[in-house]
Design a protein that fits this description.
The complex is a heterodimer of chains A (279) and B (303).
Chain A: H1 3-30, H2 48-55, H3 57-90, H4 97-109, H5 112-130, H6 136-162, H7 165-173, H8 178-207, H9 210-215, H10 223-232, H11 237-278
Chain B: H1 4-9, H2 13-39, E1 55-58, E2 61-64, H3 69-76, H4 78-111, H5 114-129, H6 132-143, H7 148-155, H8 169-192, H9 197-205, H10 210-221, H11 223-238, H12 242-246, H13 255-265, H14 269-298
Antiparallel strand pairs in B: 1-2
Helix pairs in contact in B: 2-14, 3-4, 3-14, 4-5, 4-8, 4-11, 5-8, 6-8, 8-11, 9-10, 11-14, 13-14
Classes of the chains: A mainly alpha (279), B mainly alpha (303).
């Protein structure tokens, strides 16, 4: 294969791959501006479904519940996930580490129906035994922290693994204790990973329908549960409008995240060049 | 307070970091499985919760009553057996398709100059940051009988009658491949980008054809990435509920759906628990393989 045909095949692969990934989403967004109720026949441009969406009180209150849960989930998952990542990368061997490793990686692939069912049955048993069990938002929060925790751990531990340990060791040689080293040296360096871990946990929680359906009580319908029940009944342009808004928010957030990382990377490269010159 | 004997009495400080996530995972991830196991041996009852206790203490007698009928039903009722078989089949075929589509994408991105790799990779992941439910929903409008794909094909005169794709297993395949593709590309890319280019150059210098060099060098070296990607797609796909429910038809039987129906429609919690236990046992070996790969990765050891 000559260099030229190779380049063409590369672009063809990327073109087809990205068309497959993006065309369905773009079509969805285009049809959110469709006048007609029939979500697949174009009849004219209109913002009316956005208006209907914003007037839908149930949808809005479900969205608010979801955002609250996602915020609380992401915050707790980052704290627990960072601790778990430290355990995986910095604590060496300890009795029970194999089990810990299994417990922290299994939620990444465990089918959601199993997680949902098992946590619900756990809450019910807890209620039977001690007469007290988390309900509604609290139970969804616990379930979401449990499954998003694993994803945060992956993100943070990959950052910790590539972090130069000599920095931490140098600080410790200079007399700083472990806690001080963590908060003054390690934490600032892994901060970008904590931000992406938080965002990942937030979106995973905001998106979950299966686990929430198992553990949610009657008064805590989340947005995905609401969307799921309306999608089951058929297509609705209102859902397209909601989807478009969500996609725009994600795209803007992703762009800002990319821009910040890009800027930091540039600055770091510049710093490194300066340091090299001074030598 | 700085007495050394006091320090010896207190647990090592690292245990305070270890114990918090450990206790959380034991309490909300490990123990719940034991409870599912327990309830899978109970009997359905019209009560709240809808099952009889397995372990009872009445009149100073501790009785353990294991009801095996939930498991016997799984064996005797052929519907369950078919659901397990077709879940594994659908998950396996979808995984293979995702590998065939994902490998070239990961390969091309890994060949890119380092400055543009990250942005392409982000573009692969970006759709999965938008709602999973909404990405499944997007396909309904495309695959419907009077949907965009059929309208386009009829408009171009390729077909006269609309193709029935939605509510068939084909739609479920498309949905699973679409939703899980980033999970295939990501581990493949992380593996491929680490390869030493000099190996391929050496092979070319020795006269190997590009495809031969690929099959002899690149493919075997990327084995760990292929296994990780396939596990990340296949294990959750076996228990998938939303995709077969929304895109598949009533005959697209998958075990996640059976579990959901037992729990929500029949309110048969013991049967749902038995279905979950058997699913877990089927997935145990793949999950253990995945655990080993992932733990090695987390501890920073290169595979």
């Amino acid at each position: 294969m000559s260099g030229r045909t190779q380049r063409w095949t590369s672009w063809a692969i990327l073109g087809l791959g990205f068309a497959f990934l993006y065309v369905p989403v773009l079509i969805l967004m285009v049809y959110s501006f469709n006048e007609s109720r029939l979500a697949t026949v174009w009849s004219g441009f209109s913002f009316k479904w956005y208006g209907e969406l914003l007037r839908d009180k149930q949808m809005l209150s479900a969205a608010w519940i979801s955002i609250k849960i996602a915020f609380l989930t992401a915050s707790a998952a980052v704290v627990l996930g960072t601790m778990a990542a430290l355990v995986m990368t910095r604590m060496g061997k300890f009795p029970g580490k194999t089990l810990f490793g299994a417990l922290i990686t299994a939620p990444l692939v465990m089918p959601e129906v199993i997680i949902g069912l098992s946590i619900l049955l756990m809450f019910v048993s807890l209620g039977q035994m001690v007469g007290l069990a988390p309900k509604g938002i609290a139970s969804i929060w616990i379930a979401h922290v449990t499954f998003t925790l694993a994803f945060v751990t992956v993100v943070v531990s990959s950052r910790l693994a590539e972090l130069d340990k000599s920095l931490e060791e140098a600080a410790m040689d200079l007399g700083a204790n472990r806690i001080k080293v963590f908060f003054l040296i390690t934490l600032p360096i892994i901060a970008p990973a904590l931000v992406s871990g938080w965002l990942l946990a937030f979106t995973l929680s905001l998106d979950d329908v299966v686990i929430s359906s198992f553990v949610a009580g009657p008064n805590s319908t989340t947005l995905p549960m609401k969307v799921f029940s309306s999608v089951r009944l058929g297509l609705s342009p209102k859902i397209n409008a909601l989807a478009t808004l969500m996609i725009l928010v994600v795209a803007v957030a992703a762009f800002i995240g990319w821009w910040i990382m890009h800027r930091d990377e540039k600055r770091r490269k510049l710093d490194m060049q300066m340091a090299a010159k001074e030598k | 307070m700085n007495a050394p004997w006091l320090k010896k009495l207190l647990p090592h400080p690292r245990w305070s970091v270890i114990s918090v996530p450990y206790v959380w995972l034991l309490l909300f991830f490990a123990i719940p499985f034991l409870i599912v196991l327990k309830i899978s041996f109970s009997t359905l009852a019209i009560a709240m919760p809808p099952y009889t206790p397995v372990l009872e203490y009445i009149d100073s007698a501790l009785t353990l009553k294991l009801n095996l009928s939930n498991y016997l039903a799984l064996v005797t009722d052929s519907q369950y057996f078919h659901a397990y078989i077709s879940s594994i089949k659908i998950a396996a075929i979808s995984t293979l398709l995702a590998l065939l589509i994902g490998y070239p994408i990961a390969y091309v991105i890994a060949q890119m100059p380092p400055s543009s790799r990250n942005i392409w990779l982000m573009l692969v992941i970006l759709p999965s940051w938008t709602s999973f439910l909404i990405r499944v929903y997007a396909w309904i409008g495309i695959l419907k009988n009077n949907g965009l794909l059929n309208n386009a094909l009829i408009g171009m005169g390729i077909i006269d009658e609309p193709l029935k794709i939605l509510h068939t297993p084909i739609a479920a395949y498309i949905g699973i491949v679409y939703c899980y593709l980033p999970f295939m590309v990501l581990p493949l890319y992380t593996n491929l980008v680490k390869h030493d280019k000099r190996l391929l150059e050496a092979a070319y210098d020795l006269g190997a054809k590009p495809w031969k060099a690929f099959f002899k060098i690149t493919l075997p070296l990327s084995k760990a990435g292929i296994i990780a990607g396939c596990m990340l797609v296949m294990i959750p796909a076996v228990g998938e509920f939303v995709i077969p429910e929304l895109l598949g038809g009533p005959d697209t039987l998958m075990i996640g759906r059976v579990l959901w129906n037992e729990f929500f429609n029949n309110r048969d919690w013991p049967a749902a628990s038995a279905v979950a236990i058997i699913m877990l046992m089927l997935l145990m070996i793949p999950i253990l393989i995945f655990n080993r790969i992932q733990q090695r990765e987390m501890e920073g050891r290169l595979t």
